[in-house]
Write a structure and sequence with these properties.
heterodimer, A: 173 residues, mainly alpha, 6 helices, B: 2 helices, elongated
């Protein structure tokens, strides 16, 4: 179903906002991860790992889910479709994969916050390189998705090819 | 209805991208199935040499201070 122009623009605005917001939130997590690993202040280090869990629940997860849903609405509501062009398909897969990994990783945020909350825990134990690794990987994935959305590299799936010619045949009648 | 013209084929970038994505997803699935989940023990902690066991076991043993984060 093709969305009317006004609704399409609204859907596009929502998708860009959610996706850019997700990218920005990941950059903030990258900064937090670096601060957690390098800061000499014990309270700052503990604070970093304590704040990551609620920040992920209230920023990363909603933005990731919103980006995924609005992206699907945007694809299905325009001529691009969801499975017609390879760039759309790959963008969907990347977003879905990143969202699944994020949801899996929420348990890690909880565990790290738990260690950081324990004042008896050694600071070396509180520091963890895992968020840096994951935030870097997430940033890479989201940048690839952004590049795909902007450059829209050519390439139709077999399904898209068939659909395009079916529609062309119908319009020529 | 006119015959469908032959499919022009899959672009090279799609093949390369597809292979890379398949490898990454397989690695993730293998980590989930054969590893101890996707938890904090999966990666080395800072300054540690293979901190997986240390951190994972420490987290398992840890009971957060009374009142949690307060």
């Amino acid at each position: 179903m093709i969305l009317p122009p006004r609704l399409r623009r609204f859907a596009l605005t929502a998708h860009v906002t959610a996706s850019v917001g997700w990218l920005g939130a990941v950059v903030v997590f990258l900064v937090l991860a670096v601060v957690g690993l390098t800061s000499q202040d014990a309270q700052t280090v503990r604070g970093v790992y304590l704040v990551m869990e609620p920040a992920a629940w209230f920023a990363l997860v909603p933005l990731a889910v919103a980006s995924l849903i609005t992206g699907m609405v945007q694809s299905l509501g325009t001529a691009w479709g969801l499975f017609r062009h390879y760039w759309v398909l790959f963008k969907l897969l990347l977003t879905a994969f990143a969202t699944i990994v994020l949801l899996q990783y929420m348990e890690t945020f909880r565990a790290m916050a738990s260690v950081a909350a324990d004042s008896r825990a050694d600071l070396g134990l509180v520091r963890n390189a895992s968020p840096l690794l994951h935030a870097s990987a997430a940033l890479l994935v989201l940048l690839i998705a952004t590049v795909l959305a902007i450059y829209k590299p050519k390439g139709m799936t077999r399904y898209g090819w068939r659909k395009q010619h079916e529609q062309r045949a119908v319009s020529e009648r | 209805m006119a015959d469908l013209p032959p499919y022009p084929g899959t672009p090279r970038w799609v093949k390369v991208f597809g292979i890379i994505m398949t490898i990454v997803v397989l690695l993730f699935v293998v980590a989930i199935i054969f590893g101890s989940g996707h938890g904090p023990g999966r990666h080395t902690r800072s300054g540690g040499s293979g901190g997986r066991t240390t951190l994972a076991s420490a987290i398992d043993k840890h009971t957060p201070a009374e009142g949690g984060q307060g």
